Amino acid sequence: MLIAGIDEVGRGCLAGPVVTCAAVFESGFYDIRIKDSKKLSKKKREELYPFILEHAVSYGIGIVCPIIIDKINILNAVKQAMHLSLSRLTCDYDKLIIDAVALNHIDKEYIHPNKADDTYIQVSAASIIAKVYRDNLMAELAKVYKGYLWEKNAGYGTKEHIKALKELGITPVHRKSFIKNLYQG
Predict the structure, then answer these.
(1) DSSP single-letter state for residue 148
(2) Can you list the domains of the chain with their CATH numbers?
(3) C-beta neighbour count of 40 within 10 angstroms
(4) Could you say which residues bind a divalent metal cation here (predicted)?
(5) According to the annotation, is 7 in a ligand binding site?
(6) pLDDT tens-digit map of 129-177
(7) Of 21, 102, 119, 168, which is least packed with CB atoms within 10 Å of its CB?
Protein backbone atom coordinates (compact mmCIF):
# COMPACT_ATOMS: atom_id res chain seq x y z
CA MET A 1 0.00 0.00 0.00
CA LEU A 2 1.33 3.42 -0.94
CA ILE A 3 0.43 6.31 1.37
CA ALA A 4 0.87 9.97 0.45
CA GLY A 5 1.29 12.68 3.04
CA ILE A 6 0.93 16.41 2.43
CA ASP A 7 2.00 19.37 4.53
CA GLU A 8 2.72 23.06 4.01
CA VAL A 9 5.26 25.56 5.26
CA GLY A 10 5.35 29.31 5.19
CA ARG A 11 1.70 29.94 5.91
CA GLY A 12 2.37 32.74 8.41
CA CYS A 13 5.35 34.39 6.70
CA LEU A 14 5.46 38.03 5.71
CA ALA A 15 7.53 37.26 2.63
CA GLY A 16 8.02 34.46 0.16
CA PRO A 17 5.80 31.75 -1.21
CA VAL A 18 3.80 29.11 0.57
CA VAL A 19 5.32 25.70 -0.20
CA THR A 20 3.73 22.28 0.07
CA CYS A 21 5.05 18.80 -0.38
CA ALA A 22 3.17 15.65 -1.28
CA ALA A 23 5.31 12.60 -0.59
CA VAL A 24 4.49 8.94 -1.16
CA PHE A 25 5.93 6.15 0.97
CA GLU A 26 5.38 2.43 1.33
CA SER A 27 2.97 1.75 4.21
CA GLY A 28 5.76 0.30 6.39
CA PHE A 29 8.02 3.34 6.12
CA TYR A 30 9.19 4.45 9.57
CA ASP A 31 12.13 6.17 11.20
CA ILE A 32 12.03 7.43 14.77
CA ARG A 33 14.02 10.54 13.82
CA ILE A 34 11.31 11.87 11.51
CA LYS A 35 9.01 14.32 13.28
CA ASP A 36 7.11 17.47 12.40
CA SER A 37 9.65 19.86 10.90
CA LYS A 38 8.83 22.50 13.53
CA LYS A 39 10.10 20.13 16.23
CA LEU A 40 13.49 19.61 14.61
CA SER A 41 16.52 21.85 14.42
CA LYS A 42 17.61 23.16 11.06
CA LYS A 43 20.64 20.84 11.22
CA LYS A 44 18.44 17.77 11.89
CA ARG A 45 16.05 18.68 9.05
CA GLU A 46 18.96 19.06 6.64
CA GLU A 47 20.43 15.71 7.76
CA LEU A 48 17.09 13.94 7.28
CA TYR A 49 16.25 15.58 3.93
CA PRO A 50 18.36 13.30 1.67
CA PHE A 51 17.35 10.22 3.68
CA ILE A 52 13.66 11.04 3.20
CA LEU A 53 14.09 11.75 -0.51
CA GLU A 54 15.92 8.45 -0.92
CA HIS A 55 13.08 6.51 0.75
CA ALA A 56 10.18 8.33 -0.90
CA VAL A 57 8.55 6.46 -3.76
CA SER A 58 7.76 9.90 -5.18
CA TYR A 59 7.40 13.48 -4.03
CA GLY A 60 6.10 16.71 -5.50
CA ILE A 61 6.57 20.32 -4.48
CA GLY A 62 3.84 22.95 -4.85
CA ILE A 63 4.67 26.65 -4.70
CA VAL A 64 2.30 29.61 -4.71
CA CYS A 65 3.83 33.08 -4.89
CA PRO A 66 2.97 36.12 -2.76
CA ILE A 67 1.05 37.83 -5.58
CA ILE A 68 -1.38 34.90 -5.74
CA ILE A 69 -1.53 34.67 -1.93
CA ASP A 70 -2.59 38.33 -1.85
CA LYS A 71 -5.22 37.72 -4.55
CA ILE A 72 -6.86 34.52 -3.29
CA ASN A 73 -5.93 34.48 0.46
CA ILE A 74 -3.56 32.16 2.26
CA LEU A 75 -5.94 29.21 2.76
CA ASN A 76 -6.84 29.07 -0.93
CA ALA A 77 -3.15 29.47 -1.80
CA VAL A 78 -2.29 26.51 0.47
CA LYS A 79 -4.97 24.41 -1.22
CA GLN A 80 -3.69 25.40 -4.67
CA ALA A 81 -0.13 24.52 -3.67
CA MET A 82 -1.30 21.16 -2.30
CA HIS A 83 -3.03 20.34 -5.58
CA LEU A 84 0.14 21.34 -7.44
CA SER A 85 2.28 19.08 -5.27
CA LEU A 86 -0.12 16.17 -5.85
CA SER A 87 -0.04 16.77 -9.61
CA ARG A 88 3.75 16.44 -9.56
CA LEU A 89 3.79 12.94 -8.07
CA THR A 90 5.14 10.38 -10.52
CA CYS A 91 3.28 7.44 -9.04
CA ASP A 92 -0.20 6.52 -7.93
CA TYR A 93 -1.06 6.12 -4.25
CA ASP A 94 -3.75 4.31 -2.28
CA LYS A 95 -4.45 6.74 0.55
CA LEU A 96 -3.77 10.41 1.27
CA ILE A 97 -3.18 12.09 4.64
CA ILE A 98 -3.29 15.89 4.69
CA ASP A 99 -2.37 18.06 7.64
CA ALA A 100 -5.59 19.85 8.69
CA VAL A 101 -6.75 21.00 5.24
CA ALA A 102 -9.75 19.54 3.42
CA LEU A 103 -9.26 19.52 -0.34
CA ASN A 104 -11.91 19.32 -3.04
CA HIS A 105 -11.63 17.18 -6.16
CA ILE A 106 -9.62 14.36 -4.59
CA ASP A 107 -10.58 10.99 -6.03
CA LYS A 108 -8.73 8.93 -3.42
CA GLU A 109 -9.52 8.00 0.12
CA TYR A 110 -8.13 10.72 2.34
CA ILE A 111 -8.17 12.10 5.85
CA HIS A 112 -7.19 15.56 7.07
CA PRO A 113 -6.76 15.46 10.86
CA ASN A 114 -5.35 18.36 12.83
CA LYS A 115 -1.69 17.92 13.74
CA ALA A 116 -1.26 15.10 11.23
CA ASP A 117 2.41 16.14 11.10
CA ASP A 118 2.68 14.93 14.73
CA THR A 119 0.89 11.63 14.11
CA TYR A 120 1.65 10.37 10.59
CA ILE A 121 5.23 9.88 9.46
CA GLN A 122 4.25 10.50 5.82
CA VAL A 123 3.08 14.01 6.73
CA SER A 124 6.09 14.61 8.99
CA ALA A 125 8.41 13.62 6.16
CA ALA A 126 6.55 15.87 3.71
CA SER A 127 6.84 18.75 6.20
CA ILE A 128 10.62 18.28 6.36
CA ILE A 129 10.96 18.23 2.57
CA ALA A 130 8.82 21.36 2.22
CA LYS A 131 10.62 23.20 5.05
CA VAL A 132 14.14 22.50 3.76
CA TYR A 133 13.10 23.38 0.21
CA ARG A 134 11.47 26.67 1.30
CA ASP A 135 14.30 27.64 3.66
CA ASN A 136 16.80 27.15 0.84
CA LEU A 137 14.64 29.21 -1.50
CA MET A 138 14.41 32.04 1.06
CA ALA A 139 18.19 31.93 1.56
CA GLU A 140 18.60 32.44 -2.21
CA LEU A 141 16.10 35.32 -2.15
CA ALA A 142 18.09 36.85 0.74
CA LYS A 143 21.02 37.24 -1.69
CA VAL A 144 18.82 39.35 -3.96
CA TYR A 145 16.94 41.30 -1.27
CA LYS A 146 19.63 42.05 1.28
CA GLY A 147 18.94 43.25 4.80
CA TYR A 148 15.78 41.28 5.62
CA LEU A 149 17.76 38.31 7.01
CA TRP A 150 15.64 35.74 5.20
CA GLU A 151 18.57 33.34 5.35
CA LYS A 152 17.87 33.26 9.11
CA ASN A 153 14.15 34.04 9.49
CA ALA A 154 12.84 32.50 6.24
CA GLY A 155 10.47 35.44 5.80
CA TYR A 156 8.72 35.07 9.15
CA GLY A 157 7.85 38.23 11.07
CA THR A 158 10.80 38.38 13.41
CA LYS A 159 11.74 41.62 15.13
CA GLU A 160 14.70 42.03 12.76
CA HIS A 161 12.58 41.38 9.67
CA ILE A 162 9.93 43.90 10.74
CA LYS A 163 12.64 46.47 11.50
CA ALA A 164 14.17 45.92 8.04
CA LEU A 165 10.75 46.14 6.44
CA LYS A 166 10.15 49.54 8.05
CA GLU A 167 13.64 50.79 7.11
CA LEU A 168 14.02 49.29 3.63
CA GLY A 169 10.40 49.01 2.49
CA ILE A 170 8.56 46.19 0.84
CA THR A 171 9.94 43.94 -1.89
CA PRO A 172 8.09 42.16 -4.70
CA VAL A 173 8.17 38.97 -2.60
CA HIS A 174 6.47 40.46 0.44
CA ARG A 175 2.83 39.57 1.02
CA LYS A 176 1.13 42.93 0.98
CA SER A 177 -2.01 41.56 2.62
CA PHE A 178 0.11 40.32 5.55
CA ILE A 179 2.08 43.53 6.15
CA LYS A 180 -0.53 46.22 5.60
CA ASN A 181 -0.69 46.95 9.35
CA LEU A 182 3.10 46.82 9.84
CA TYR A 183 4.33 49.03 7.05
CA GLN A 184 3.24 52.60 6.74
CA GLY A 185 5.51 53.73 3.92
Answers:
(1) S
(2) 2-136 (3.30.420.10)
(3) 19
(4) 7-8, 99
(5) yes
(6) 999 999 999 999 999 999 999 999 999 999 999 999 999 999 999 999 9
(7) 102
